């Protein structure tokens, strides 16, 4: 495989314009942080990234479904085993619902263990004390609403690495050490979810899964010997935004000699930084990880094709995923030309739907939120467009938290505007809470079943 162009190196992006980067006040401090990262052990291995790419190749062929989910942005102040466990629980619940409901394997990818930076539409925000630099994530600066807090500090990249390592360590323990065992399917239902209609629906599904397992055991199948019932693979991902950090974690794989960005299994390029001649596309064109690119409603068919050619010239199945985030009112008009163009050029692309980022609204009280109905509506428009174009609707990409927050409107509980302030905790975009996420999974499974 010759993914890496001859002119590429982990630092070749530095010759190009890199949008959305912090201006480190102290360039020597930034260089020292990058050197520290280069000396640290990798967070993930190249072989694991290749494994994910193979699973994504199965998604491409319609033999699996991608579930990519997690926080909008992780927080340095919220690192705890409880929070990691709650996020994993809801991810496992959603994938149980999708696997059982749609009878397809689910490729599980968290927005986790490195999702510490944010691209922003405006460089500043208004506060009572005046204008301050906008919050760009804890790997850049603190979120407190003061000018001092928002001064970028490159040492935070090293802290981000350490927090990612701790998170990944616990994730690996949970997913391989019995917690994700399918016989524990009931335990993943947390209390505040279990008492809701979708939680009770989940209980019934979990009982069916248990019955199916008992049936298999009664048929003489040795369930204890079947590793796949007792362990799961949860892969990590984040937006590859802060290029100093990504460069610092890029290594040559000792087996193949290929370059991998070992900060996560999958990296995505955001809607704001996907210029074909920009620094982000340059950087990611040279690493062998599976990649995703976000596409908003202004994307042209040409843009999509150029990205395919820049990022996957060898047309490797599973290498490239397009995550579309059109908004419920635009998806049915904006997506079909892209699907047709990419299909016409026979580029292998996994298509996934991010129904969150095109559906942001602000309430009369100035609170950023999203409506559950708009989120579901975009997913429906995505599925309909894919089916019309004879393209497999490969997955969804959502922002959720395992906790009982009140950030998005609607869902089975019908969360109303007046409830938003009860528990609104996100540092950036509003997330689905655990009940809303489970509700979404059930509806998604129905949508997939309806099509057979
Ligand atoms: C995100 O996924 O958090 C994000 C900022 O998305 P987008 O690039 O699609 O706006
Ligand atoms: Co977001």
Structure description:
The chain is built from 13 helices and 14 strands. The chain has 452 residues and is α/β, with parallel strands linked by helices. The chain binds phosphoenolpyruvate and cobalt (II) ion (CO). Cobalt (II) ion binds at residues 72, 357, 399, 428-429.
Rg (CA only): 21 Å
H/E topology pattern? HHEHEEEHHHHEHEEEHEHEHEEEHEH
- Coarse shape: globular
Q: How far apart, in Å, are the first and last alpha carbons?
A: 36 Å
Count of alpha and pi helical runs: 13
Mean pLDDT: 95
The hetero compounds bound to this protein are: phosphoenolpyruvate, cobalt (II) ion
Which strands sit side by side, in order, in the main sheet? Answer: 1-2-5-8-9-10-11-14
Brief description of this entry?
The protein is α/β, with parallel strands linked by helices. The chain is 39% helix and 14% strand. The model has no long low-confidence stretch (mean pLDDT 95).
What attributes characterize this protein structure?
single chain, 452 residues, alpha/beta, 8-stranded parallel barrel, two-stranded antiparallel ribbon, 39% helix, globular, binds phosphoenolpyruvate, binds cobalt (II) ion
């Amino acid at each position: 495989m010759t993914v890496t162009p001859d002119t590429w190196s982990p630092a070749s992006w530095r010759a190009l314009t890199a949008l959305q980067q912090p201006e480190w006040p102290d360039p020597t401090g930034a260089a020292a942080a990058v050197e520290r990262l280069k000396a640290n052990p990798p967070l993930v291995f190249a072989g694991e990234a290749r494994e994910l790419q193979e699973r994504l190749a199965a998604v491409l062929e319609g033999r699996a479904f991608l579930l990519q989910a997690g926080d909008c942005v992780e927080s340095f102040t919220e690192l705890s085993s409880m929070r990691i466990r709650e996020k994993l629980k809801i991810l496992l619940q959603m994938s149980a619902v999708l696997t059982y409901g749609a009878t397809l394997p689910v490729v599980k990818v968290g927005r986790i263990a490195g999702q510490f930076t944010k691209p922003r539409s405006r460089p500043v925000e208004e506060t009572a004390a005046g204008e301050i630099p906008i919050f760009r994530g804890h790997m850049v600066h603190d979120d407190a609403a003061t000018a001092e807090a928002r001064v970028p500090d490159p040492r935070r990249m090293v802290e981000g690495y350490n927090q990612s390592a701790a998170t990944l360590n616990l994730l690996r323990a949970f997913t391989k050490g019995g917690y994700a065992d399918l016989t524990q399917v009931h335990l993943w239902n947390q209390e505040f979810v279990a008492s809701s209609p979708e939680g009770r629906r989940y209980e019934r599904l979990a009982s069916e899964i248990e019955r199916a397992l008992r049936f298999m055991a009664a048929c003489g199948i040795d369930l204890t010997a079947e590793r796949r019932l007792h362990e799961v693979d949860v892969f990590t991902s984040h937006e590859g935004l802060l290029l100093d950090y990504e460069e610092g974690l890029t290594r040559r794989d000792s087996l193949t000699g290929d370059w991998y960005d070992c900060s996560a299994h999958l990296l995505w390029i955001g809607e704001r930084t996907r210029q074909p001649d920009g620094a982000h596309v340059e950087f990611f064109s040279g690493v062998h990880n599976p990649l995703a690119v976000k596409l908003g409603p202004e994307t042209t068919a040409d843009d999509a094709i150029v990205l395919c050619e820049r990022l996957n010239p060898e047309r490797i199945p599973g290498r490239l995923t397009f995550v579309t985030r059109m908004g419920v009112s635009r998806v049915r008009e904006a997506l079909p030309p892209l699907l047709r163009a990419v299909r016409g050029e026979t580029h292998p692309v996994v298509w996934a739907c991010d129904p969150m980022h095109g559906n942001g609204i602000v309430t009369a009280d100035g609170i950023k939120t999203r409506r559950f109905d708009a989120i579901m509506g975009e997913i429906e428009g995505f599925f309909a467009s894919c089916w019309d174009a004879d393209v497999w609707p490969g997955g969804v990409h959502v922002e959720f938290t395992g906790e009982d927050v009140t950030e998005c409107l609607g869902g089975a509980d019908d969360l109303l505007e007046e409830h938003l302030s009860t528990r609104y905790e996100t540092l950036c975009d509003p997330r689905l809470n655990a009940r809303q996420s489970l509700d979404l999974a059930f509806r998604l499974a129905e949508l997939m079943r309806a099509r057979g």
